[in-house]
Amino acid sequence: MKIAFLASNSEIAQEACATLCDSYGNVAPDQAEVIVALGGDGFMLQTLHGTLHLDAPVYGMNCGTIGFLMNEYAEPRLLERLAAAEEEVINPLRMRAISGDGEAHDALAINEVSLLRAGPQAAKLKITVDGKVRLDELVCDGALVSTPAGSTAYNYSAHGPILPIGADVLALTAVAAFRPRRWRGALLPESSEVRFDVLEARKRPVIADADSRLVTNVVSVLIRSEPQVRHRILFDPGHGLNERLIREQFN
């Protein structure tokens, strides 16, 4: 099996990469049958974005902190683990953010697209879903749209719901909502197109973030699921995303 090992900059990930390359060999990502990512969830997201143009699935091994998208790190029997691994396919969100100068910024997000206040005052956002205004004004620290795969990340920290893989829904979640008081967000069909318009953008600046791809001084952000883009992730049997999402709700 042709394996491409990619590692984060952390010392533990670099040492693991050197050990595994010595044991199993290493090829360039464009020649690999499978890509093994060594690091944490942030590096896994980086790897998925960076290898999207390749056909090889990605198998993560945790050399970071949480490792929700990763498998347990172990050096022995890697070939057997890869052969037995089960594949999950996830679709990202596509963001188009318009900044104050009128420039459009496009990005994909596997976890979530978030809008966050960039100054001392709360943000004011108008929310439109499929062309219909659903909330004239949300006063908040921010808001986000999350995929099921990303629902245990920032979305969950903001008290959003955990979504099962394959549920065909997105989570729209407020971050520290002030008006309407304690607004908890909404569950939307996966096919929904969500638009945020930033009200009083100069006085209350907002940034948009798609998996750490930042756009500053945004005036509007359009978000929709992108079914044409498929990320292939490998998990050890019995430890796939659905099991992890269920387990997380009972921790």
TrEMBL record:
The lineage of its organism: Bacteria, Pseudomonadati, Pseudomonadota, Alphaproteobacteria, Rhodobacterales. It catalyses: NAD(+) + ATP = ADP + NADP(+) + H(+). NCBIfam families: PRK04761.1. PANTHER family: NAD KINASE. The keyword Membrane does not apply. Belongs to the NAD kinase family. Its main location: cytoplasm. One of its GO terms (cellular component) is cytoplasm. This is NAD kinase. It is found in: Cytoplasm. It is an enzyme of class 2 (transferase). GO terms for molecular function: ATP binding; metal ion binding; NAD binding; NAD+ kinase activity.
